[in-house]
Amino acid sequence: MRHWTYLIVLLACLCATVPLELLFQVRVLRRPRVLIAALLPELVLFLGWDLYAIHDRQWTYDPRRIVDVALPGALPLEEVLFFVVIPVCAILTFEAVKRCRTSRMPALPRPARRREPA
């Protein structure tokens, strides 16, 4: 069961945040082009960084914690999913908080300006 640890953590993150799509109608998952545009730079940068670190033997993965599925470059499936799932969860959370703040909280009054003596 240990080899499922990474996937279980990712699934738990999704289970905690995907309901925000329905509860707060944030429409993150309903706009796939926008979501992909937000994810693509991060995916390219960090997957490239991981591939380099694995190739240079700076980084390894515990085979007891991951399933035995590796993509080209010895990149575990879970690592690729991490760079999709965690940003999606962050975006969902951010949009839900933004939605709550704008729809439920009244605007804060502006502080009165102090007049400078002439």
Describe this structure in words.
The chain has 118 residues and is mainly alpha-helical. The chain has one domain (2-103). It contains 4 helices and 2 strands. Helix 3 (32-55) packs antiparallel against helix 4 (77-104). It is elongated and about 70 Å long. The mean pLDDT is 88.
How do the strands and helices of this protein lay out in sequence?
Blueprint: H1 5-17, H2 19-23, H3 32-55, E1 70-71, E2 75-76, H4 77-104
Q: Output the radius of gyration.
A: 21 Å
Flag low-confidence runs: none
The count of DSSP E runs of length 2 or more, i.e. the number of strands, is: 2
| Biggest pleated sheet | 2 strands, antiparallel
Order of helices and strands: HHHEEH
Mean pLDDT: 88
- Taken as a percent bin, the fraction of beta residues is under 5%
Q: Rough shape?
A: elongated
Structural class: mainly alpha
Distance between the termini: 75 Å
The proportion of residues forming helix, as a percent range, comes to 55-70%
| Spatial sequence of strands, sheet with the most strands | 1-2
Total count of helical runs of at least 4 residues: 4
How many domains would you count in the coordinates? 1
